[in-house]
Design a protein that fits this description.
The protein is built from 13 helices and no strands. It is mostly helical.
């Protein structure tokens, strides 16, 4: 496989930074939607996300996947599961941010890689390297430290981490592109979400029409806020190595953590710092192990390619020598015999 051109890589990196940067800065957006509650914001996010991705799909005329999906009941069932799990993730995250738990929400995305690895071992029977085992154990210790510091387990973080890890596992089995997957999932979410918004309106509790045009526009823009990072992520995923994306993913929780501490002024008692330090240590171990493994794999591939090339050259040389010998023998048999 040939390397991507430099321009392609730069484009991929810029899209990756944009995707994870938007996900990291999104805590600044949800408070702007008050006085809408978390459930109303979530319902608008579902409805307007579907509208946005349908427009995007109409623009690129990419519909073949929908017909294939409708003919596969198992994949449809997985889409429903993915929609249910991401609904929980979105709802908890919006509530956490608007309730002053940005730091705890960021912790959920810090520990998500550790939860994903643990689920791979438990559900997919994957085998871990020693460093990965150490990282998972360190992550578990961090949760215990935070539980002592909070006086209870960090439920918000755990809910976000497990729901997103489950979502990733299901999406892997569905095997749809980012925009297509979001379209399918929000299609499942659309009717319940629209029904809830209509119910709120009938009871005079909806804020969409009662808080002015600016508020309505902000609620409608939840579709853009949801889909645009996915589009950038998709553009990055096809242009940069997976190892690079794995490093970029930490940008989002880092931004969220900094916002929680610096902008929202959430408290960071010593026990919380200790818990986060353990999480960061675990992620450093995972990153180091991943980079080391990637370098080793690249070196082995390069060595195998070099051996294959040398072997091919040797075969070509042997074939050339044999052909030359045969030609000489042919010429000797047809030349006149000297007296």
């Amino acid at each position: 496989m040939t390397d991507k051109p430099g321009g392609e890589k730069r484009t991929g990196l810029l899209n990756g930074f944009a995707a994870y940067g938007m996900w990291g800065l999104v805590p600044l957006f949800w408070p702007l939607l008050k006085p809408a509650g978390a459930a109303e914001i979530l319902a608008h996010r579902m409805v307007w996300s579907l509208a946005f991705v349908l427009v995007a799909l109409l623009a690129v005329r990419r519909w073949a996947w929908a017909g294939e999906l409708l003919r596969q009941p198992r994949r449809l069932a997985l889409i429903v599961v993915a929609a249910a799990v991401i609904t929980v993730n979105w709802g908890v995250y919006i509530w956490a941010v608007n309730s002053g738990h940005v730091v705890e929400a960021s912790l959920g995305y810090f520990i998500n890689p550790l939860v994903t690895i643990a689920m791979g071992v438990l559900l997919l029977k994957e085998r871990l390297r020693p460093v990965q085992w150490a990282a998972v154990a360190t992550g578990a210790a961090s949760v215990l430290v935070l539980a002592v510091g909070y006086g209870q387990p960090p439920w918000i973080s755990l809910c976000l981490a497990f729901s997103f890890a489950t979502y990733g596992l299901v999406k892997k089995k569905v095997d749809l592109g980012g925009v297509e997957s979001l379209a399918a999932e929000t299609a499942v979410q659309f009717l319940p979400a629209l029904g809830y918004l209509l119910w709120l309106g009938a009871h005079g509790e909806a804020t969409f029409a009662s808080e002015g045009a600016g508020h309505a526009a902000l609620l409608a823009s939840t579709g853009v806020v949801t889909a645009l990072p996915l589009v950038c992520f998709g553009a990055a995923a096809i242009r940069v190595p997976l190892s690079t994306l794995g490093l970029l993913q930490y940008l989002a929780p880092v931004f969220q953590f900094v916002l929680g501490v610096v902008y929202f002024h959430e408290s960071m008692p010593p026990a919380r710092w200790a818990g986060f330090a353990l999480v960061w240590l675990a992620l450093s171990m995972l990153t180091w192990d991943g980079l080391r493994t990637a370098r080793r794999s690249a070196r082995l591939r390069a060595e195998a390619a070099a051996r294959a090339e040398a072997h091919g050259a040797a075969l070509a040389g042997t074939a050339g020598s044999a052909g030359a010998g045969a030609a000489d023998a042919s010429r000797s048999s047809t030349d006149p015999v000297e007296a």
